[in-house]
């Protein structure tokens, strides 16, 4: 719903939890990475990672569960399916065997598999459709980013092509969300601090 309304999930989390957006972004990805692992089990892990007292982390995790109840419902339902079948499966049909020997690790793997796999397949499909030409040479891919060297005379044209292609692919796999793509043009790589 947030994405459909052009919202910012990380800012929404930051506002709800009372933390900075950049912290909220890593917090969101960490929380989603752990899937169905209970907040009580995550609080000590998050406490060490974010250097926040454990009781405060537990409160923030519970508030996040209230903010995104469908994620909690989905992760618990998905975990039950994994317990019954021994596999995590994405809507695209990619299956991953989940070994159930260590419950916490298995829950983490089960919860992480669908979003990571879907992001990977979606990006690969976009890369396949974008291809590589003399005017736009593919050079790198990092998570959901693709990097190209583009001739300066083709920048505007190719910027629109990349945006349109990636959004079409994203909407093919996530039709209920409304994928939005940002395209940035830089002459040189920028160092991030």
Question: How would you describe what is shown here?
Answer:
The protein is mainly alpha-helical and 193 residues long. Helices cover 58% and strands 10% of the residues. The chain is built from seven helices and four strands, in the order αααααββαββα. The chain has helices spanning 9-17, 21-33, 39-50, 54-67, 69-85, 103-130, 155-173; strands at 87-89, 95-97, 136-142, 145-150. The strands form two sheets. It has a two-stranded antiparallel sheet with strand order 1-2. A hairpin with a 2-residue loop joins β3 and β4 (145-150). The chain is globular, with a radius of gyration of 19 Å. It starts with 8 loop residues before the first helix and ends in a 20-residue tail after the last helix. The mean pLDDT is 88.
Termini Cα gap: 32 Å
Helix content: 55-70%
Largest sheet: 2 strands, antiparallel
- Overall number of strands: 4
Which descriptor suits the 3D outline? Answer: globular
Overall mean confidence score, pLDDT: 88
Number of helices: 7
Q: How many whole angstroms does the radius of gyration measure?
A: 19 Å
Poorly predicted parts: none
Percentage of residues in DSSP E strands: 5-15%
């Amino acid at each position: 719903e947030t994405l459909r309304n052009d919202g910012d999930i990380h800012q929404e989390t930051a506002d709800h939890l009372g933390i900075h957006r950049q912290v909220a972004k890593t917090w969101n990805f960490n929380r989603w990475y752990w899937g169905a692992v209970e907040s009580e089990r995550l609080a000590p892990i998050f406490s060490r990672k974010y250097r926040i007292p454990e009781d405060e982390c537990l409160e923030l995790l519970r508030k996040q569960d209230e903010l995104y109840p469908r994620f909690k419902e989905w992760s618990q339902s998905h975990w039950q399916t994994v317990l019954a079948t021994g596999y995590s499966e994405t809507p695209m049909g990619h299956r991953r065997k989940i070994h159930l020997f260590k419950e916490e690790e298995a829950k983490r793997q089960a919860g992480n598999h669908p979003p990571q796999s879907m992001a990977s397949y979606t990006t690969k499909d976009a890369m396949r459709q974008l291809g590589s030409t003399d005017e736009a040479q593919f050079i790198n891919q990092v998570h959901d980013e693709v990097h190209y060297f583009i001739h300066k005379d083709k920048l505007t044209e190719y910027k629109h092509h990349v945006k349109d292609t990636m959004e079409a692919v994203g909407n093919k796999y996530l039709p209920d969300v409304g994928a939005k793509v940002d395209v940035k043009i830089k002459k040189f790589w920028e160092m991030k601090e």
